[in-house]
Specification:
This protein is mainly β. Helices cover 0% and strands 54% of the residues. The strands form two sheets. Strands 2, 4, 5, 6, 9, 10 and 11 form a seven-stranded mixed sheet that branches. The protein is globular, with a radius of gyration of 13 Å.
């Protein structure tokens, strides 16, 4: 059974930082890439980032240069360091697993709110 457990959401002012964590279980991270998506109010869920087993990460253009993923292989844990947050980053952030064109599995989500 695949489980993805996120933590680290919260509320910050614009320009602030937050760090999200996700611990995965029930997946083989050697061939199941982990990452993040988000869903803002009234919008569809969108891709944020994905990381490969060698630590190489890819980001959505909207977060490139501000967000950084890291991956601890033996702990099946990924982190998303979010800096210089903007009000438009407000969303529920979901940890995802097994990325192809989209993630096959999702966590329960954690709220991130950025005030101006």
């Amino acid at each position: 059974q695949v489980q993805l457990v996120e933590s680290g959401g919260g509320s910050v002012q614009a320009g602030g930082s937050l760090k999200l964590s996700c611990v995965a279980s029930g997946v083989d991270v050697r061939n199941c890439r982990l990452g993040w998506g988000r869903q803002a109010p009234g919008k569809e869920r969108e891709f944020v980032s994905v990381v490969s087993v060698d630590g190489t990460a890819r980001y959505a253009a909207s977060v490139e240069g501000r967000f950084t993923m890291s991956f601890i292989y033996d702990k099946k844990t990924v982190y998303l360091q979010m800096n210089n947050l903007r009000p438009e980053d407000t969303a529920v952030y979901y940890c995802g697993a097994c990325y192809r064109d989209d993630f096959l599995y999702w966590g329960q989500g954690t709220q991130v709110t950025v005030s101006s």
